[in-house]
C-alpha cells in the first residue's frame, strides 16, 4: 500500500504545478487514499492472499503452546460454575478463573456445547461475547475463539428458534430449494445466537437402520444425499463470502458412519475401497467443491481402522486427492475413545499422536485441555512434526478469518428481527407439507370428511416431542419442560380443525407398556374412523441404536386389537428410520409416514388427512418388509429367471422413491436427443408427465440408469436426476434432464472411475408400477 500511496502522491504533485487543477488534485489524492484505505481496512474473507499473509505472520509469532491450544476444542461447561455437563441448571454462568485458565494457560481456540437447557439468543450472545472479549482483549495475540454447535434441523438448542423437519424428512421433500432455505434460516438464527459454526449437514449414506442416527441423514442414496448436502452448504454459507447472517458448515461424518456391521454407533463398517469411492465418498467430494469449511471425522471404524487415525482417508484422500483446504475436526471425545473404546491407542497421549499425524486439525476433547498438553510433549519428543502442527493452525486461523471473527467477533441478537418469525415458521411448515409421505390409501380412505367422528390414539398422538424428534431443545429431545408452549400435537390440531364433538382421544399405550387399550376398543364403536399414531423412543447416538426394527409389541398389539372393531384405521408413523410394520400393514386402510417432521407439522398432517393438502413426499429410503437390515435399492438387487420364474432380491414393503398422491400421474413417454452418447458429449432426456386425476398435485420425476453389462456386477439401477413439479388437473409437462458421461461411470476393480462402452437403460415413472424406459449406447 505504501508504494501505491507514494506513486499517487508524486502524480498529484506533478499535476498540482498547474494552478487551475490544484484543488482537483487534492480532492483526487484524498479520494484515492480513502478508497485504498477502505480496501485494505476491509480485508475480509474474500481476499485470500491477504488472509494468507496475515495467517503466516501470526503463525510466526505464536508459541508451540499457543498453536496446540488453537487445535483444542473444549465444552462450554468446562468454564462454567456448574461442575457437571448435564447439570440441569437454568442459567449458564462463567467462572472467570476457569475462563482465564482456558484462554491464557491452555490457549484454547474453540468451544462447543452448552448446559442442559436451551438458552435464549440473548443469553447465548452474552455467554459467547464474554469468552470472545477475554480472548481478543486479554490474551497476548488477541486471537478470537470460534464457537460451534449442532444445528441439524434448525437452531434447535436456542430457545424459541424455528424447528425444522429432520434431514430424513427434508430428503423426503425431494426439494433441494427447501433444504437450502432451511439451512439459510438455521444459519440466520444461529448468528442471532452469536454462533458462527454449525456441525451440519450430515451427509452419511445410511444403509443400516438399526443405527440410531439414520434420521439425521438424507437417506440411502448417494446422489440424493449429494444434492441435498450441497443445497444445505449453499444455504448456510451463502454463495460468496460468509457474512454476518451465514455460518460455516461442517460436513459429517467422514466416512461410512451409517453402515456399521451391526448398526451400532461408533462400530466397525466393512467397506471395500471400491464401495467407499462409489457410494460413500461422492457427497463429500461435492461438499468440498461447494466450499464446505470444515469436515468432521466419523467416530466409527472402516475395515477395523478408526477413522480418526486413518491417514489414507484424512490426508491422502480428503486433503491431497480432493484438495480440501478447510479444517478437519474430531467428533466428541474421540481422543478418549481411541484408548478406552476402540483399543487402538494405549493411552490418550498415543491417541493424540495418531490423530494429529493422520491429519486431524482440531480435537474435540471436550472435558479438558489435555489434548494440547499431550501435543506439546509429542512435538518436543519429535513424535509429531512442527510442520504438521503449523498446517493445522494455518487451516484454523484461515477459517477464523473467513468467518470474519478477527473483524467482528460477535453478532448481536437485536439485529436479527426475523428470528423465530412467522416468515421462518412458514418455511418449516412448507417443508413438512412436502415431506409427509402417503404410503397406503386403500379404497381412497383419505381424505376424510370433516363431519366424520374420529378416535385418536397412540403414543405420539398427543406429543410435540414425537414430532420434533431428538436434538430438539435438549440432546435427547424427550424432555417436555422445554417444549414451545403454543405448538399443537396431532390430537390438538385435529381437535382445532373439526368440530371437537367429533373428536375422541385416549392414549392407548406409551412407548412399551399398555395404558388403556381395552377401554379404547370399547370407545371405538362410537367413531367412524380410528387414527393411530405410533412412534419410536426419542434418543440419539448410542442410546438410539436398536437390536430389532420391530415396534414394541404393545404398539403393534394396539393396532391389532383396534382392527377387530372393523373400523377403518389411519396409521401415522413418527420414526427416524423405517420400523417394521408388516404384521399390521394389512390391518389398516391408510398409512402416513411422518418421519420427525418438526413442531409445525401437526397442522399440515391434519390438512393432508382432511384433503386441504395433497401429499407429495417420496421415500428417501427403502421401506423393508422383514429383517433387521434394510436392503438399499442400488447394488443389492438382482433379477433372475429360471425354471421357477423371475424373482428379485429387492422386495421392500415400499421401494425407494415411492409415495402416493390424491391425484394420479401418467408417464406418457421418455425420449432422448440421440440413441448414442459419445465421449464428452451430452444427451437431452425428455419425460412427459400428465396429471390424469381430479386435483392439482406435485410429482417427483425421477430418472434412473442401469448399465446392462459391465466388467463388474453393475448397480441394478441408480438415480441420476430428479425434479419436483406441480401439475394442475389435466395438465401435462415435459421435464428435461441433461446427462453426460459422468452419469454412466462406476468405480472398477482398480478403484478408478470409468465408463465402458455398451448398452444403458434410462427409466422413469411410478416407483410401484411399470416404469417407462429408453435404451442408449455409449461409445468412447
Shape: globular
Number of strands: 29
Question: Which structural category fits the helices and strands?
Answer: alpha/beta
Number of domains: 4
Which residues sit in consecutive blocks of at least 5 with pLDDT less than 50? Answer: 1-45
CATH architecture of the largest domain: Alpha-Beta Barrel
Order of strands, widest sheet: 10-7-5-4-3-2-1-11
Largest sheet: 8 strands, parallel
Based on CA atoms alone, the radius of gyration comes out at 28 Å
List keywords for this structure.
780 residues, alpha/beta, TIM Barrel, Rossmann fold, 8-stranded parallel beta sheet, 6-stranded mixed beta sheet, 32% helix, 18% strand, disordered N terminus
What would you say this structure looks like, in words?
This protein is an alpha/beta fold and 780 residues long. It has four domains: 2-41; 48-411, Glycoside hydrolase, family 3, N-terminal domain (TIM Barrel); 427-609, Glycoside hydrolase family 3 C-terminal domain (Rossmann fold, 3-Layer(aba) Sandwich); 663-779, Immunoglobulins (Immunoglobulin-like). The strands form seven sheets. It has an eight-stranded parallel sheet. A six-stranded mixed sheet has the order 12-17-16-15-13-14, sandwiched between helices. Helix 6 links the parallel strand 2 (110-112) and strand 3. Helix 9 (222-237) runs parallel beside helix 11 (282-289), helix 14 (348-358) packs across helix 15 and helix 17 (422-435) crosses helix 22 (602-609). Mean pLDDT is 91; it is low at 1-45.
Amino acid at each position: 500500500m505504501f508504494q501505491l500511496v507514494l506513486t499517487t502522491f508524486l502524480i498529484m504533485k506533478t499535476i498540482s504545478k498547474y494552478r487551475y487543477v490544484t484543488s482537483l488534485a487534492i480532492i483526487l489524492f484524498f479520494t484515492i487514499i480513502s478508497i485504498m484505505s477502505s480496501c485494505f481496512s476491509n480485508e475480509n474473507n474474500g481476499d485470500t492472499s491477504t488472509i494468507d499473509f496475515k495467517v503466516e505472520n501470526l503463525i510466526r509469532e505464536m508459541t508451540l503452546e499457543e498453536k496446540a491450544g488453537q487445535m483444542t476444542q473444549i465444552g462450554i461447561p468446562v468454564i462454567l460454575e456448574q461442575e457437571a455437563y448435564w447439570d440441569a441448571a437454568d442459567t449458564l454462568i462463567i467462572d472467570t478463573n476457569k475462563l482465564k485458565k482456558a484462554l491464557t494457560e491452555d490457549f484454547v481456540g474453540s468451544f462447543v456445547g452448552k448446559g442442559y437447557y436451551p438458552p435464549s439468543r440473548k443469553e447465548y450472545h452474552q455467554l459467547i461475547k464474554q469468552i470472545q472479549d477475554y480472548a481478543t482483549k486479554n490474551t497476548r495475540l488477541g486471537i478470537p475463539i470460534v464457537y460451534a454447535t449442532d444445528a441439524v434441523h434448525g437452531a434447535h438448542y436456542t430457545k424459541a428458534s424455528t424447528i425444522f423437519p429432520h434431514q430424513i424428512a427434508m430428503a423426503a421433500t425431494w426439494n433441494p430449494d427447501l433444504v437450502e432455505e432451511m439451512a439459510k434460516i438455521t444459519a440466520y438464527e444461529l448468528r442471532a445466537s452469536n454462533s458462527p459454526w454449525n456441525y451440519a449437514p450430515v451427509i452419511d449414506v445410511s444403509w443400516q437402520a438399526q443405527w440410531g442416527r439414520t434420521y439425521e441423514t438424507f437417506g440411502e442414496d448417494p446422489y440424493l444425499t449429494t444434492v441435498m448436502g450441497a443445497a444445505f452448504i449453499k444455504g448456510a454459507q451463502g454463495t460468496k463470502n460468509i457474512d454476518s447472517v451465514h455460518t460455516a458448515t461442517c460436513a459429517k461424518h467422514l466416512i461410512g458412519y451409517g453402515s456399521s456391521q451391526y448398526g451400532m454407533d461408533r462400530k466397525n463398517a466393512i467397506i471395500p475401497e471400491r464401495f467407499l469411492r462409489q457410494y460413500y465418498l461422492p457427497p463429500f467430494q461435492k461438499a468440498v467443491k461447494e466450499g464446505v469449511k470444515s469436515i468432521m471425522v466419523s467416530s466409527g471404524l472402516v475395515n477395523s481402522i478408526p477413522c480418526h487415525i486413518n491417514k489414507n482417508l484424512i490426508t491422502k484422500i480428503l486433503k491431497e486427492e480432493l484438495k480440501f483446504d478447510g479444517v478437519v475436526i474430531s467428533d466428541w471425545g474421540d481422543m478418549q475413545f481411541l484408548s478406552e473404546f476402540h483399543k487402538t491407542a494405549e493411552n490418550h497421549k498415543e491417541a493424540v499422536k495418531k490423530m494429529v499425524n493422520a491429519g486431524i486439525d482440531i480435537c474435540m476433547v471436550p472435558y479438558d485441555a489435555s489434548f494440547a498438553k499431550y501435543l506439546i510433549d509429542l512435538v518436543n519428543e519429535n513424535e509429531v512434526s512442527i510442520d504438521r502442527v503449523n498446517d493445522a493452525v494455518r487451516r484454523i486461523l484461515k477459517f477464523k478469518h473467513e468467518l470474519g471473527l478477527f473483524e467482528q467477533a460477535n453478532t448481536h441478537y437485536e439485529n436479527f428481527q426475523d428470528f423465530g418469525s412467522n416468515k421462518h415458521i412458514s418455511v418449516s411448515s412448507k417443508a413438512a407439507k412436502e415431506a409427509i409421505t402417503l404410503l397406503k390409501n386403500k379404497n381412497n380412505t383419505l381424505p376424510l370428511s370433516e363431519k366424520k367422528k374420529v378416535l385418536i390414539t397412540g403414543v405420539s398422538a398427543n406429543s410435540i416431542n414425537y414430532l420434533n424428534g431428538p436434538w430438539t431443545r435438549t440432546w435427547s429431545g424427550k424432555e417436555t419442560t422445554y417444549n414451545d408452549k403454543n405448538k399443537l400435537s396431532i390430537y390438538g390440531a385435529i381437535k382445532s380443525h373439526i368440530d371437537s364433538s367429533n373428536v375422541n382421544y385416549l392414549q392407548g399405550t406409551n412407548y412399551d407398556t399398555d395404558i388403556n387399550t381395552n377401554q379404547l376398543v370399547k370407545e371405538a364403536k362410537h367413531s367412524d374412523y380410528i387414527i393411530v399414531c405410533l412412534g419410536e423412543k426419542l434418543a440419539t447416538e448410542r442410546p438410539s441404536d436398536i437390536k430389532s426394527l420391530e415396534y414394541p409389541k404393545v404398539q403393534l398389539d394396539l393396532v391389532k386389537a383396534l382392527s377387530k372393531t372393523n373400523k377403518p384405521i389411519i396409521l401415522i408413523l413418527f420414526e427416524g428410520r423405517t420400523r417394521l410394520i408388516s404384521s399390521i400393514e394389512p390391518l389398516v386402510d391408510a398409512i402416513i409416514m411422518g418421519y420427525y417432521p418438526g413442531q409445525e407439522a401437526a397442522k399440515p398432517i391434519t390438512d393432508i388427512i382432511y384433503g386441504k393438502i395433497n401429499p407429495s413426499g417420496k421415500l428417501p429410503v427403502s421401506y423393508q418388509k422383514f429383517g433387521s437390515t434394510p436392503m438399499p435399492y442400488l447394488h443389492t438387487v438382482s433379477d433372475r429367471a429360471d425354471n421357477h420364474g423371475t424373482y428379485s432380491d429387492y422386495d421392500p414393503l415400499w421401494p425407494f422413491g415411492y409415495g402416493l398422491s390424491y391425484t394420479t400421474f401418467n408417464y406418457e413417454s421418455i425420449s432422448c436427443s440421440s440413441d448414442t452418447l459419445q465421449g464428452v458429449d451430452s444427451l437431452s432426456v425428455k419425460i412427459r408427465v400428465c396429471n390424469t386425476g381430479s386435483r392439482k398435485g406435485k410429482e417427483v420425476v425421477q430418472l434412473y440408469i442401469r448399465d446392462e453389462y459391465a466388467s463388474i456386477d453393475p448397480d441394478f439401477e441408480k438415480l441420476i436426476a430428479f425434479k419436483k413439479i406441480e401439475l394442475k388437473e389435466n395438465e401435462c409437462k415435459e421435464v428435461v434432464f441433461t446427462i453426460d458421461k459422468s452419469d454412466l461411470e462406476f468405480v472398477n476393480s482398480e478403484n478408478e472411475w470409468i465408463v465402458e462402452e455398451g448398452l444403458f437403460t434410462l427409466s422413469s415413472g411410478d416407483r410401484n408400477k411399470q416404469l417407462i424406459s429408453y435404451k442408449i449406447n455409449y461409445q468412447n
